[in-house]
Amino acid sequence: MSEEQFDLALDLMRRLAPSNTSNNLIRLVKLVGPELEEELFSAVDLPLTTGTCAKSGRQYLKCDYNRDEQSYRSPWSSDYDPPLPEGNQPSIRLRRLEVAINDAFDVYRELYYEGGVSSAYLWDTDDKDIFAGVVLVKKVINDGDAETGAWDSIHVIEVEEKSKAAHYKLTSTIILNLIHGKHNVGELNLSGNLTRQAEHDLALDDASAHVGNIGRIIEDMEIKMRNALHEIYFGKTKDIANDLRSVQSLAEAKKQADIQAELVGKLLSRK
C-alpha cells in the first residue's frame, strides 16, 4: 500500500462520525486490506477500554502502548492478561517511577474527575537518556443502563534527561462523546477529539521529580484543552441554537430591526 492510500484512509476517518470511530476503523481496515491495519490502528486515536487486574482486582485502561501481541499489561501488577511470560516490561528504574506516577494520577483522577479510571505506562527507548510513557484517564457517565457521555484523555510524553534538568515533549488528545435528549424532543450528540502539543524544560533534582513535573505539565494541558473544548463544543452549539430559535416574538424582532434600520439611515444621512 502506498503512502497516498494511507493518507487518504486517514482523511476519510476524519470525515466520518467521531462517535463511531472504532466501528468505522474496523470497516476501513476491511476495505483497504491488512497491509495498513497496524499503521491505521497506531495513527487513529480510539476510545479507551478497561480491563481488570487479576492480581489486584483493580481496573486499568487498555491502549496500544500497554499491548503486546493480544495481551495487555496491568499498571498495578505489571502482569499481562492473558498471561504472556515474554511480554515487554519496563526496566526496574522505570517500573518504580511508573508505580509512583500511577499512585499520583489515581489521586489526580479522583480530585478532578470524581471517579473514572486512570493508568500510566512507561517504556525504555534505544537512547539511554530518553524514556517515554503515556498517562490515560477515562470517565464515563451513565443514565440508567445507557452510556450518555465519555471523556478519554491520552497524554503521550517523551522525556530526555540532562544534567539537573529534563526536556519533556507532550502530545495530548482528548476524545469527547456526549449524548443528551429524549424521544419527544430529539437527541443531541456532541462527539469529537482535540490534540495539542507542548514542550517544557524543567529542573530535575532526582528521578522522583519526574512525578511532579509530568503531573504539572499534564494538569496545565488538560485545563487549557478543557477550556478550548468548552468554547468549541458548548459555545458554538449555543450560538447555533440561538440563531435557529429566537426567544423574541416576531413583532419584537421586527420592531428592533426597524429601529436599527432607522438609526443606520440617520447616520448615513449625516455624511
How would you sum up this structure in a few lines?
The protein is an alpha+beta fold. Helices cover 41% and strands 33% of the residues.
Strand order of the largest sheet: 6-7-8-9-10
SSE class: alpha+beta
What's the β-strand tally? Answer: 10
Q: What is the overall shape?
A: elongated
Question: Rg, please?
Answer: 24 Å
Secondary-structure element pattern, one letter each: HHHEEEEEHEEEEEHH
Number of helices: 6
What is the percent of helical residues?
A: 40-55%
- Low-confidence residue ranges: none
Q: How much of the polypeptide forms β-strand, as a percent range?
A: 25-35%
**Distance, first to last CA:** 66 Å
Mean pLDDT metric: 88
